[in-house]
Design goal:
The chain is mostly helical and 200 residues long. The chain folds into two domains: 67 residues, Helix Hairpins, CATH 1.10.287.990; 99 residues, Iron/manganese superoxide dismutase, C-terminal domain (minor pseudopilin epsh fold, 3-Layer(bab) Sandwich). It is 47% helix and 10% strand. A three-stranded antiparallel beta sheet has the order 2-1-3, sandwiched between helices. A hairpin with a 5-residue loop joins strand 1 and strand 2. Helix 1 packs antiparallel against helix 3 and helix 5 runs antiparallel to helix 7. It is globular. The chain starts with 21 loop residues before the first helix and ends with a helix.
């Protein structure tokens, strides 16, 4: 069965008051994400990956250390990344952080603010296109990581609790070249902390 572009879990203009414009979501979701879905479907048609889950395709086609992964991997991984990304954001200001997540972040990083600082620093330091992540390792430890292009934590046996897209198309309309400002805004206004806590 072919993959399909999921609807956004909110209206295209729902995040505008929080710093992510309708125009950004129209480009990012309706064009970029759709392209990953369409191209991925074309590439897996008639291959061993047709009919497999997105997670199986990502794990099965990732080549550790490769400068450029295969087209199948790139499109499947970016489809997964973006589907998760939309769910990690929500409209409405002052979205509270569940106590269990606050306690886990404090234990792992020293404080919630220290986690936010580390996450923003990882995203700002990612050279070129990529993502920054809050992940849970197989042993349950929480850590902040960053990946190039479409690579994601599934490739390393980790659970992604939160990810932020630092490709330019995610922020350039609203923040121009100010990636650090975009990351701060993401953490302070856009994150759906309930969704993050659900992954613990």
């Amino acid at each position: 069965m072919a993959f399909t572009l999921p609807d956004l879990p909110y209206a295209h203009d729902a995040l505008a008051p929080l710093g992510m414009s309708k125009e950004t979501l129209e480009y990012h979701h309706d064009l970029h994400h759709k392209a990953y879905v369409d191209n991925g479907n074309k590439l897996i048609a008639g291959t061993e990956w047709e009919g497999r889950s997105l997670e199986d395709i990502i794990r099965g086609t990732y080549q550790a250390g490769a400068v450029a992964q295969s087209g199948i991997f790139n499109n499947a991984s970016q489809h997964w990344n973006h589907t998760m990304f939309w769910g990690w954001m929500a409209p409405g200001e002052a979205k509270g952080m569940p106590g269990a997540l606050e306690a886990a972040l404090t234990e792992a990083f020293g404080s919630v603010q220290a986690f936010k600082d580390a996450f923003a620093a990882a995203g700002a330091a990612q050279f070129g296109s990529g993502w920054c992540w809050l992940v849970k390792d197989a042993d349950g430890a929480l850590k902040v990581t960053k990946t190039e292009n479409g690579v994601n934590p599934l490739c390393f046996g980790q659970t992604a609790l939160l990810g932020c897209d630092v490709w330019e198309h995610s922020y350039y309309i609203d923040f121009r070249n100010r990636r650090p400002a975009y990351l701060t805004n993401f953490l302070e206004k856009l994150v759906n902390w309930e969704a993050v806590a659900a992954g613990l």
